[in-house]
Amino acid sequence: MLSNKTKHDKIFISYRREDTQGYAGRLEDSLAAYFGPNRVFRDVGGISGGDDFSHAIAKELDGAGAVIVLIGQRWLSTVTNRQDLSGSPQDYVSLEVQTALEKNVPVFPVLVENSSMPRGNELPESLVKLATRNAISISDERWKTDVERLAKVLAIDVPGSLAELKLKQLKRAILALLLIPLVAQTLAFSWAAYVSLSNNEAFKVSTQTQDIFNFSSFSWSIPSASFIAIMAACYLLMLAKSHVERTSAKLIYSSIWIGGLGTLGSFVSYGLVFGAQEKVIAIYSASTIVIATMLGLMVLAGFKSP
Description:
Helix content: 55-70%
Radius of gyration: 30 Å
Number of strands: 5
Distance between the termini: 32 Å
CATH superfamily of the largest domain: Toll/interleukin-1 receptor homology (TIR) domain
Number of domains: 2
CATH topology of the largest domain: Rossmann fold
Strand order of the largest sheet: 2-1-3-4-5
Structural class: alpha/beta
Number of helices: 11
Strand content: 5-15%
Shape: elongated
């Protein structure tokens, strides 16, 4: 069923069934795995029964961010024959390409079966501009590599691959896991400082910090809960690292190690090293430092897909 969206976020595959039908279906599946199944349109599979073909094509091109023109060994000869034959049925493939060129939709000729790019003097006047577009070749032997290269070129005009969408979701979840406990325990500490003040004197960190933790309403369970959030964030970071470029992955690895070792080290110190009066201060300080460091590394990483 055709989409009613007008956002230019789709990829339109133009092909001739007698020329590149097999390649078109395979390319649709490969690009759908990269950009998402609802963003790749192929005329035969995307048009419902009873729809007007020319109207449906024009409608889909209105929402297209890029058009792929699959060119095989018989593509050019078919264009020429249908232009020369009097009374022949309308060449919808030429109409697709012509409409895309007129609408200034980015057009990408994709050559298969060792085909050559048609020259301008070989094309009808309505398709001459196609000859000025840079062509990309794909082959069975290098299919995965060639399609990845094509996808990266397409992503310039049609951003938002599945990897990018997944990274955005993971980034939001990680930020929530780190920011919410950081803000919560900071507010809890601020309230504890407020209720622990006496004689309306100004709060002095050097003399009253320990009193806040020991004698106020501040609970050790508040910063401890932050470490649970940190470990959950580390798990999501592990999922994200396989979807980012190498430079970002190194920073994400560092964030995972800091989160894991910071949590383990803090609880070892909490149980074995610090005295009773210093335990809560240790966990609060450690969790705050670990979260702030992880957030800093996340900002530097940028979460960019390769």
